[in-house]
Amino acid sequence: MKKIGICILIIFISLLSVSAVSAHGADITDDTMIIANESNGVFAKDIVDNLGLNITVYKFKSDGDVEHQLEHALTNPNKRILAIAYQDTVESYLDEHSELKSRVLVSNDDEKSISDSCKKLVEIDVNSGSGSNNFITPLVVGVVIGLLIGIVVGAVVLKRKK
After folding, report:
1. Nearest Cα to Cα of residue 105 among 73, 126, 82, 127
2. pLDDT per residue of the chain (162 residues) written in tens, 0 to 9
3. CA–CA–CA angle 28, 30, 34 (5° rounding)
4. Who's near 14: CB < 8 A, 6+ residues apart?
5. Which long-range contacts (CB under 8 A, 24 or more apart) does 44-50 make?
6. Which helix (H) or strand (E) holds 157?
7. In what order do the strands lie in the sheet with 56-59?
8. How far from chain centre, in Å, is Cα 59?
9. Distance CA 109, CA 154 (A)
10. Secondary structure class of 102 (helix, strand, coil)
11. Helix and strand tally (H, E) in the chain?
């Protein structure tokens, strides 16, 4: 009976130590990007190439795809986005998630607006203030979980030796 209780305790602690996994897929886009559509994507790419900036233009086909990309921006503090298409979707998303307003810009799709916004986009400092905090928290959590599991396993091993 004691073995079953110990096994259940170990399984319970193991389940608690499993980190949450985002179920909406991996982000395969670049960190600095432009949200475009079929009508303005090539135009935006030409402007970015002429400026010589390292910004990737992605053509989106639906509001849902744009919202999905903005969800990735919530979890990736390095992501900077310029939206020249789907402006209404992006602005309504920004109203709900104000923490993205410093890294997500909305622009008209004319040459001057895109050019000015692209320059602003690459000037956004994504490293301000959040660099060290993103490492310390998982480290401390991992150490605490490791200690708890180590204590339980050590107690089981010592009990078996007697």
Report:
1. 82
2. 677 777 777 777 776 666 555 455 566 678 899 999 999 999 999 999 999 999 999 999 999 999 999 998 988 888 999 999 999 999 999 999 999 999 999 999 899 999 999 999 999 887 765 444 567 888 888 899 999 999 998 888 888 887
3. 115
4. 149
5. 44/84, 44/109, 44/114, 47/111, 47/114, 47/115, 47/118, 48/118
6. helix 133-161
7. 56-59, 32-36, 80-83, 104-106
8. 20
9. 63
10. coil
11. 6, 4
Give this prediction's pTM. Answer: 0.64
In tens, the pLDDT along 41-59 reads 999 999 999 999 999 999 9
What's the pLDDT at 134?
Answer: 63
In three-state secondary structure terms, 139 is helix
Beta pairing partners, 55: none
Supply 158's token pair.
């010592």
The residue behind tokens 């390095």 is 78
The answer to whether 109 and 85 are in contact (CB under 8 A) is yes
| C-beta of residue 31 within 8 angstroms of C-beta of residue 80 | yes
Quote the DSSP letter at residue 5.
H
